[in-house]
Amino acid sequence: MDLLTRVSVLSRFGHALSDETRTQVLLALKDEPRYPAELADALGVTRQKLSNHLACLRGCGLVVAVPEGRRTRYELADNNIGQALDDLLKVVLAVDPTCCPASTAEDCC
């Protein structure tokens, strides 16, 4: 993979994480696939706002929509994304342990 491609991929990931709601969605989907109504309720956002964030995350290639009859379930596009989120949190805590009140990455999630 050339440099420009790597920059583009990481920029998309950074854009996804630049919004707290999108980050919450990714962390929620790391644990299990979810339906939009469940996610909206769990995150305390309107379904319309959640829909916009899911569209962004789909556009970034981080989540996929899986049709199930009349419903659509969302999940991470790849299990490596969940691991990357865990690893990124560990790196941030290693660089600045005061950024999170908990002492380990697992406690923060």
UniProtKB/TrEMBL annotation:
CDD domains: HTH_ARSR. SUPFAM superfamilies: Winged helix' DNA-binding domain. InterPro entries: ArsR-like_HTH, HTH_ArsR_DNA-bd_dom, HTH_Metal-responsive_Reg, WH-like_DNA-bd_sf, WH_DNA-bd_sf. It holds the Pfam family HTH_5. Residues 3-96 form the HTH arsR-type domain. This is Metalloregulator ArsR/SmtB family transcription factor. It comes from Rhodococcus sovatensis.
